[in-house]
Amino acid sequence: xxxxxxxxxLVNIFTSPSAAFPVIKARPSxxxxxxxxxxxxxxxxxxxxxxxDFPWLMDQxxxxxxxxxxxxxxxxxxxxxxxxxxxxxxxxAAQGASGAIVVLVIYALVALYYTAVSAVTRDGVKYKQxxxxxxxxxxxxxxxxxxxxxxxxxxxxxxxxxxxxxxxxFGSLLxxxxxxxxxxxxxxxxxxxxxxxxxxxxxxxxxxxTQSSIVKSTIVVLGPLGAIVLISxxxxxx
Length: 238
Fold this sequence. Notes:
By secondary structure, the protein is mostly helical. It has helices at 6-15, 17-26, 31-51, 54-64, 73-83, 88-121, 127-137, 141-154, 170-173, 183-189, 194-210, 214-237. The chain is built from 12 helices and no strands.
């Protein structure tokens, strides 16, 4: 009988996904991967804001943000002075919390999408099973978190842009700059190469859950991503 513990699933999702998927479907518990990802994200953000030159970082973000080019030097200075009064730990926790909320909302929406597909195809897979699959398949992001920690300790983190924090991010690998970035480039800067790994896991997981063909599984899993890129490109062209 296969080991159905969360620890076993944690190992198998990296080493033998085909063994992990039946356990996730039978016992859909997303709490361990969510805990690891959320705690890791909090730790990176808090550590980063403790070591980065905060006034410099805020000035960089203000210049890159919407309307940043319209702010005068004095307005940016006043904003930076105001934000600098907030302890870095509080800001890091706030950023970690907002990031965790965004991730949970994305997971919930994608699980809802899969559930809607299940209702149409009548494959019998429930919402909580899809949500658990998405959470477990997202675990490769742990490597991006580890890479960020390593980067903080081997580089001069005082002047490390947020877009360069994770060396595995597309922003770092493609040398994308936040100033003047398109919508698609902005999305890419927030993702890293482990997203490709997670996407492959989701395709294989969808196939295992529904016994669908690999072609159908790929189309279903990539559907939302394709729609997001298409809509972003349309808005960018307007």
